[in-house]
């Protein structure tokens, strides 16, 4: 019986009881889990799962996500001590264990994000939703991107994220990599992001940037530097000669972007550089 949990089965109705129908293998189909009136010996297609009491039950609401079958599921609740619950299309929301979520909670999904999951079981046989790993996507889940996608604007949900970069699947099914230099902050797992294609690879995957074009990002970076100067009593220990890694570690932008922003501010006579430091010019 336990091997049926998390799958769609065609089962025979044995009898009707006060709360619903008893199917073969003593699986209960509650009245509120079906829109049809059933009769004994009738066959019915159902999704089999366990309720909160651990009883094996069924529903005629059939999900696209099953054990070994992946699909997108929306996050409907997040509990720090447990993980995230997702809607797979049935009355029962399924838990994504915190053990299968990122280490840092600031990049956990929030309500409304979408995760690409299949179903599995824990040691007690209870259903869990399991996020897809890179191996799953390497099996050909994504579509090859066309060459003319370069510079196009795309949207996609993040399915992997770490310090090196984030990976998304676009709405058209393309696999997109976002290097950490091409994002201002690390996206959440499951977050819908919008970016532009900066490279189409030979294998059909794409590189994506979440940063605006240089002509727009320069103003944003300059504003960020001004804000840092105001918070630091008008001086920061950085200049256009500073180490690129120190710049990225503090401002999360490249040295080239930092120099462009400094140049803009110096041209506007808002800052000056002396002895490896940058000073806010008081007016």
TrEMBL record:
Please give the Gene Ontology molecular function terms for this protein: nucleic acid binding
Instruction: Indicate the segments forming the S1 motif domain, all copies.
Output: 151-211
One Pfam family this chain carries?
A: CvfB_2nd
What domain of life? Bacteria
Q: What family does the entry list?
A: Belongs to the CvfB family.
PANTHER family, sorted: CONSERVED VIRULENCE FACTOR B
Q: What is this protein called?
A: S1 motif domain-containing protein
Q: What is the scientific name of the source organism? A: Saliterribacillus persicus
What's the source species' lineage? Bacteria, Bacillati, Bacillota, Bacilli, Bacillales
